[in-house]
Design goal:
Blueprint (H helix, E strand, L loop, with lengths): L3 E2 L2 H21 L5 E7 L3 H16 L3 E7 L5 H12 L6 E4 L9 H6 L12 H9 L7 H12 L8 E5 L6 H10 L3 E5 L6 H5 L4 E4 L17 E4 L12 H7 L2 E2 L6 H21 L1
Parallel strand pairs: 1-9, 2-3, 2-4, 5-6, 5-7, 7-8, 8-9
Length: about 280
């Protein structure tokens, strides 16, 4: 098997191209797809992510609204801001930039988002729909992972997928999506014993642990598919790329792998939400 570098930029461009016609149609009837991003505090990484999403909207002739709240904002105030966006008919998608300051009840804030505008799949109802296989808006990074596997025609049916990480907006939903695609799924986490032994059994590895260069090539089965969903300081992912590259049959780079597809998916969901509210 020839080694494949899974290029997320190519996949993201395909997603963007697929949206242009419906965006043009929506604009022709007076609807401009709009994503509202809520940022609490002044986390530099979050500032960068929000700017990237705004620029991506602009390139597609979409509208973006940035709602900046101070780091002293309380949970009730944040929820009230989200409810105002819920009631704004010109807003089709709402993204609460993660993480929020530690004193805020992030789950309560997520739950305040109208499920019709939950374009990043962060509500419990959205997660439930994803798990049951009928959700319109799965979490964007898990959806991006499934999209890159589909684009490169990597078989999932019957494969053993090991997901390293169990966060509610990445590890858990991607495990559900892989299970719905007929993979046998093992979800690992910080309490998992003998992680290298488990990874040795994996046909597909999804790294979503939030630790730079954590997964080593010596832990992998020869020819396995490695999807790195991590992004850490220094532009590195959750896998040790060099050692994993030697073993993997296919691997996503960081940057340029899952990240661009995640942003494209967020915009696709926003356009779909606008379509659903107006057509």
């Amino acid at each position: 098997m020839e080694k494949i570098i899974l290029d997320g930029n190519i996949v993201a461009q395909e997603i963007r191209d697929s949206m242009k016609e419906i965006i043009d149609f929506l604009r022709s009837i007076g609807v401009i797809p709009c994503l509202a991003t809520v940022l609490v505090g002044d986390n530099p990484a979050s500032e960068t992510y929000v700017k990237m999403k705004g620029n991506a909207c602009k390139r597609l002739n979409m509208k973006s609204i940035r709602v900046q709240l101070s780091k002293e904002t309380e949970t009730a105030e944040l929820i009230e801001t989200i409810k105002e966006l819920n009631n704004d008919n010109s807003v089709h998608g709402i993204l609460l930039q993660h993480p929020v300051p530690s004193h805020i009840d992030e789950r309560a804030a997520f739950e305040a988002i109208d499920i019709r505008k939950d374009v990043d799949g962060v509500t419990s109802a959205g997660y439930g729909q994803t798990a049951f296989g009928f959700g319109d808006f799965p979490s964007c990074t898990p959806a991006a992972i499934m999209k890159i596997l589909e684009y490169y025609q990597i078989p999932i049916d019957g494969m053993h997928a090991v997901v390293v990480g169990r966060s509610p907006i990445l590890g858990k939903p991607v495990s559900a999506l892989l299970l719905n695609a007929n993979a046998t799924v093992t979800t690992c986490h910080s309490r998992t014993s003998n992680l290298p032994d488990i990874l040795k059994q994996a046909d597909i590895v999804v790294a979503a642990v939030g630790k730079p260069k954590f997964i080593q090539g010596s832990w992998l089965k020869q020819g396995s598919i490695v999807i790195d969903a991590g992004y850490n300081k220094g532009n590195v992912g959750d896998v040790d790329y060099d050692s994993c590259f030697e073993v993997a049959g296919a691997i996503t780079p960081v940057p340029g792998g899952i990240g661009p597809i995640t942003i494209a998916t967020l915009l696709k969901h926003t356009v779909k939400a606008a379509e659903g509210m107006n057509i």
